[in-house]
């Protein structure tokens, strides 16, 4: 079964309000980058963003890009239609970023067969651009033909 | 160390009608519950000098339809202390904070209430659904990290916790089903429960999936109702209608991040911290508890609580409830004796605390736990927020 939540198949999404502590995260995709705030003193990635490091309490914080690679920590396959126009099934997951697994994102897994998703799956970021926001979704990182059914790439439609 | 919460006791509980299309407004339901609690305790409106609710305000329809000031003004209360608990360690913070108020002498009898009209709110939304098209509103706070990814319901967070526990501990859907079956069995003996038809493990396993691995019967039921609970200073509680239920120990500890996805352990969540802290405040042991009502907005929450509270070892809660005998009314530790929230209705922990109190007062009716229980526990929350308390009848 194919995941119906491919980017083009989702007509609309709820969007976050932007502010000075989340803009780097939500707009990093404009450069094709997944970005987080990072403590410049101890190297700790801080998510959600804050003006102080929770580990060393340094105030020297700056936005930095990461690889966009992550691992699925857990997931659910949604089977309920919560809103008009929102088709199911779709996969909601929590992923842990490679650089610092304690930084997790609740996200959607796209371009992946529903039955193929699993804990430990390697994924990579793919952005869904809506208005002034680039939502970081994730898709399987390794080429596994069985995951794509049929094989299409984003942007080909 | 002084355990100051032992200066506080629950002295009365009251509940409005529970259900759907009750024909009463939220404030009427609240007044019904309050008057029932006062009568139960043997107190008058004039005796109340403290007032608390949670959350007091919410953007979620039907979640907080009655703010504190409406009750204060409606009843003409003369208060020495009051607060609604917008941020705190789960639903029981509206009991545990008042316990601290009476323990330090700022109030003698605190009226605590929780009213929800989530069923009515849902009907109103269904009657006027939002049009198709882009939602115009932008989200702040926790919603902004979940809603853009269509994680639109708390069930998504709980389904993902459940998946972790299946992966890590081998928890099965059949094991979880026994929680739902036990609740329904108890609800059949509770005239106020909303779901009282028989439910078998086969019914559970055949139910419609909502967010795999959670199905319809893993979810509690939105209802309209109000519960009022009176927290009194122990020295003001002695001459009332019932033996005071002293707070032996309580905890709302939270050491991990207050977040569904940033909490350090996705398998235990905040219950881990509150459960561990609770037993550091009493010489009682988990095995001393005679009746427990654990938050079951979703089936996975009581499983987490059972382990966090030491009723069983880590990862063993699935096996503990399997078959439904150990948690039954006549089992070694009866749980969710009124049907829980799954079958009793979503009273946001206040219904569970009321049920624990009724059991300790011997007012459980057909569902009364045998043996005249004196020690009961209620735990509420179970995601990123958690609070729990042990009551002992004096």
Shape of chain B: globular
Mean pLDDT across residues of chain B = 95
What portion of residues of chain B belong to β-strands?
A: 15-25%
Structural class of chain A: mainly beta
C-alpha end-to-end distance of chain B:
21 Å
Structural shape of chain A? globular
Point out poorly predicted stretches of chain A: 150-157
Q: How many beta-strand runs of chain A?
A: 9
Largest sheet of chain A, in brief, is: 5 strands, antiparallel
The strand count of chain B comes to 12
Strand content of chain A: 35-45%
Helical segment count of chain B: 14
Q: What Rg of chain A, in angstroms, do the CA atoms define? A: 16 Å
**Largest protein-protein interface:** A-B, 42 and 42 residues
Textual characterization of the structure:
The complex is a heterodimer of chains A (157) and B (394). Chain A has 157 residues and is mainly beta. Chain A is built from one helix and nine strands, in the order E-H-E-E-E-E-E-E-E-E. In chain A, a hairpin with a 6-residue loop joins strand 6 (90-97) and strand 7. In chain B, the strands form two sheets. In chain B, strands 3-2-4-8-1-9-12-11-10 form a nine-stranded mixed beta sheet, with helices on both faces. The longest helix of chain B is centred in the first third of the chain and has 16 residues, at 26-41. The model of chain B has no long low-confidence stretch (mean pLDDT 95). At the A-B interface, strand 1, strand 5, strand 6, strand 7 and strand 9 of A face strand 5, helix 5, helix 6 and strand 6 of B.
